[in-house]
């Protein structure tokens, strides 16, 4: 056991905060059973306390300690996808303090697929609440450097596990009944869920989701993000440049190789896997390059394209809620 993992477990036990890598994004972790530590997570993130957190566990075998009943479909998904980018919402057991669930009687649980996260969780032994390690509403971190830059001294320890391999957050499934639904599309695709269950799994439109924490504006860079049809990208970019904006362009595959008069032009990666891995880094890059406007289009909403479109829509969402 490396001394850094032991140190992380010690920080968690003493009520501190540890930022740690997962396969999706970096998390800002605290002991789930320590209400004061959980409160600090909300403070550091600037997140309203009504927004529930995900409890991370080392092993699916611990699930029954944290939730009351596990419907058969939820058990099947846990067996199939854990460790992995899937979060199950179930009825909370008394072990889960209401501070972690924003007062809800349900709790979100997941077993992450990252060796550093799993080592930390195993050494700590308990549940670790962890939202993405960014300020509320901002772009999620996919490197330890992103966390250090954004949260700095507010975190007691940052574990560096390299670049996140999935790059978008976990898929959240409401598994409180046998009628499952996807609350947030993510790293496990709807198609994967449906193949595992042998039936359709609805994905309610974002506007139908009432859970706190599913705000229309989220995952947003400083630059304003504008979504347009792929065939309008060139026109819109040039117009915005003429109006004096510093424009960043996420160039859709259909325009690959086209010259665009804009401040920063980044081609959308070829595969959806790569696009998901790189999306948040690209949004950060536009900010670093000083862009005040980013023009992008939505991918086809299949496979990881569903999660990518969800994050782009929210990056472009109304800012008034921030
Ligand atoms: O990939 C991930 O899920 C990352 C890594 C760190 O594990 N975590 C993450 O956490 O994305 P966060 O806090 O940024 O997003 C968790 C979302 C909340 O915004 C909320 O919408 C949903 O999970 N959630 C948590 N508890 C819930 C509950 N009891 N019912 C419904 N939704 C819940
Ligand atoms: Mg988040």
Automatic annotation (TrEMBL):
Q: Which domain of life is it from?
A: Bacteria
GO CC terms on record? cytoplasm
InterPro entries noted in UniProt: DHBP_synth_RibB-like_a/b_dom (IPR017945), Sua5-like_dom (IPR006070), Sua5/YwlC_C (IPR038385), Sua5_C (IPR005145), T(6)A37_SUA5 (IPR010923), TC-AMP_synthase_SUA5 (IPR050156)
The entry's L-threonine-binding residues are 24, 56, 110, 130, 170
GO BP, sorted A to Z? regulation of translational fidelity; tRNA processing
EC number annotated for this UniProt entry: 2.7.7.87
User: SUPFAM superfamilies this protein is in?
Assistant: YrdC/RibB (SSF55821)
> What is catalysed by this protein?
L-threonine + hydrogencarbonate + ATP = L-threonylcarbamoyladenylate + diphosphate + H2O
| Cell membrane keyword on record | no
Q: Report the principal subcellular site.
A: cytoplasm
Query: Which Pfam family name is an example for this entry?
Result: Sua5_C
Please list the GO terms describing molecular function: ATP binding; double-stranded RNA binding; L-threonylcarbamoyladenylate synthase; tRNA binding
Q: Which residues form a coiled coil?
A: none
- Which keywords does this chain's UniProt record carry? ATP-binding, Cytoplasm, Nucleotide-binding, Nucleotidyltransferase, Transferase, tRNA processing
**Amino acids binding ATP:** 47, 106, 132, 140, 184, 219
Start and end residues of each YrdC-like domain = 2-188
Location in the cell reads:
Cytoplasm
State its role. Answer: Required for the formation of a threonylcarbamoyl group on adenosine at position 37 (t(6)A37) in tRNAs that read codons beginning with adenine.
**What is stated as this protein's family in its record?**
Belongs to the SUA5 family.
Protein name per the record = Threonylcarbamoyl-AMP synthase
Organism in which the protein naturally occurs = Kribbella jejuensis
């Amino acid at each position: 056991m490396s001394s850094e993992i032991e140190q992380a477990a010690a920080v968690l036990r003493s009520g501190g905060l540890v930022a740690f890598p997962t396969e999706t994004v970096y998390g800002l972790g605290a002991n789930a059973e320590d209400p004061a530590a959980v409160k600090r997570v909300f403070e550091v993130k600037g997140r309203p306390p009504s927004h529930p957190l995900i409890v991370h566990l080392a092993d699916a075998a611990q699930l029954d300690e944290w939730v009351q009943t596990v419907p058969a479909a939820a058990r099947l998904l846990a067996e199939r996808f854990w460790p992995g980018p899937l979060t199950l919402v179930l009825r909370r057991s008394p072990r889960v303090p209401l501070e972690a669930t924003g007062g809800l009687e349900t709790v979100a649980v997941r077993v992450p697929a990252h060796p550093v996260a799993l080592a930390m969780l195993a050494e700590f032994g308990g549940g670790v609440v962890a939202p993405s390690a960014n300020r509320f509403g901002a772009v999620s971190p996919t490197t330890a450097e992103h966390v250090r830059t954004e949260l700095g001294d507010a975190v007691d320890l940052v574990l560096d596990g390299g670049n996140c391999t999935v790059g978008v957050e976990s898929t959240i499934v409401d598994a409180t009944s046998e009628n499952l639904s996807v609350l947030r599309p993510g790293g496990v695709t709807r198609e994967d869920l449906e193949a595992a269950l042998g039936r359709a799994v609805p994905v309610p439109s974002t506007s139908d989701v009432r859970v706190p924490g599913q705000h229309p504006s989220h995952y947003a860079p400083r630059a304003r993000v504008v979504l347009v049809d792929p065939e309008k990208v060139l026109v819109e970019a040039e117009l915005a440049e003429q109006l004096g904006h510093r424009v960043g362009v996420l160039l859709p595959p259909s325009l690959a190789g086209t010259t665009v008069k804009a401040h920063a032009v980044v081609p959308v990666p070829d595969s959806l896997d790569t696009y998901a891995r790189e999306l948040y880094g690209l949004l950060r890059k536009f900010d670093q390059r000083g862009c005040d406007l980013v023009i992008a289009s939505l991918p086809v909403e299949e496979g990881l394209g569903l999660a990518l479109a969800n994050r782009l829509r929210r990056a472009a969402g109304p800012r008034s809620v921030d």
